[in-house]
Amino acid sequence: MSRLKIAVAGATGRMGRMLVEQTLAAPDLELVAALEPAGSSALGQDAAAFLGRPCGVAITEDAPGALNGAQALIDFTRVSGTLAHLPMCQAAHCALVVGTTGFSADEMVQLDAAAQSLPLLWAPNMSLGVSVLMNLLAQAAQQLGPAYDVEIVEAHHRHKVDAPSGTALQMGEVIARAQGQRLSDVATFAREGHTGPREAGRIGFAVVRGGDIIGDHTAMFCGEGERIEISHRSSSRVHYAQGALAAARFLAQPGRRPGRYAMADVVADLQARA
C-alpha cells in the first residue's frame, strides 16, 4: 500500500516538530517536505535532526517545488504564511490542513475561495476530544437555555499571539448558535472598572497567557445555586498532531471533492469506518 505523502509547514515550530515526529512514526505516512520561511536558520538542516535520527528530508523555503511531491500540506504557522500557501496548494493540487488561528473575516473568505478548487480543512483545534467538547457544549446550551450565564475561560503559553484563542471563539459560536444567537451580537471580550450588573444573554470571555501552558478551555454555565463546567485541558501537543494527520488522511481519500471541511467531518468519517 502506498503511503500518504505529507508536507509540514513551520517544521521547526512547536507544532511543526510534533507533526514531523508523528508523521515519521506512522506506517501509512511519508514525510516528503518540511517548510520554513526564507531567512530561517534551519534551512538545509534535516527535518528530524532534533530527534537524533535524520530522516533525509531537508528543511526548505521552496514551498512551490516541495508541494509538487505532496498530497497534503499541514500548516500551523501564521496567517500571512497560510494565506501565501493557498495558491501554491491550488497549483500543486495538494490538500490543505490549516491549524493557524487569528484570521479576520476577510481572510476566512480567502480560505473559502481556495476551498472551491481543493479539499481544505480549517480548525482552530485539531483535537478529536475538542470535537466531542463542542457537541457537549451545544447540548448543554440547548437544555440550560438563557437562564444560565455563560463564561468561557482559556489559557495558553506566553508565545501565543492571538486572543481569545480560536478554540474559545468556536466554543462561543457553538453555544450562541445552539441558543439561536450570533456570537458577534452577544460576546463580551473585556471587563474593567465599574461594569455594572452582568447583562443577561451575554457570553463572556477571559484570557490567560503565561509560561508553557499548552491549552486549557472551560465553558461555565452559571445558574442560581449551581455551576456547570465543561473543560478540555491539553497536557501534550501530540493529540493536536494526531488529529491533524487524521484530517490529512480524510482530505486525501480518493474522490474527496473540493470544499472546506471541519473536524466534525473527520470524526464522522472515523466513526463510519470503525
Automatic annotation (TrEMBL):
It is found in: Cytoplasm. One of its GO terms (biological process) is diaminopimelate biosynthetic process. It comes from the Bacteria. Pfam families: DapB_C, DapB_N. Residues 5-126 form the Dihydrodipicolinate reductase N-terminal domain. It catalyses: (S)-2,3,4,5-tetrahydrodipicolinate + NAD(+) + H2O = (2S,4S)-4-hydroxy-2,3,4,5-tetrahydrodipicolinate + NADH + H(+); (S)-2,3,4,5-tetrahydrodipicolinate + NADP(+) + H2O = (2S,4S)-4-hydroxy-2,3,4,5-tetrahydrodipicolinate + NADPH + H(+). Keywords: Amino-acid biosynthesis, Cytoplasm, Diaminopimelate biosynthesis, Lysine biosynthesis, NAD, NADP, Oxidoreductase. It is an enzyme of class 1 (oxidoreductase). NAD(+) binds at residues 10-15, 36, 99-101, 123-126. Its EC number is 1.17.1.8. Homotetramer. Belongs to the DapB family. Catalyzes the conversion of 4-hydroxy-tetrahydrodipicolinate (HTPA) to tetrahydrodipicolinate. This is 4-hydroxy-tetrahydrodipicolinate reductase. It comes from Inhella crocodyli. The gene is dapB.
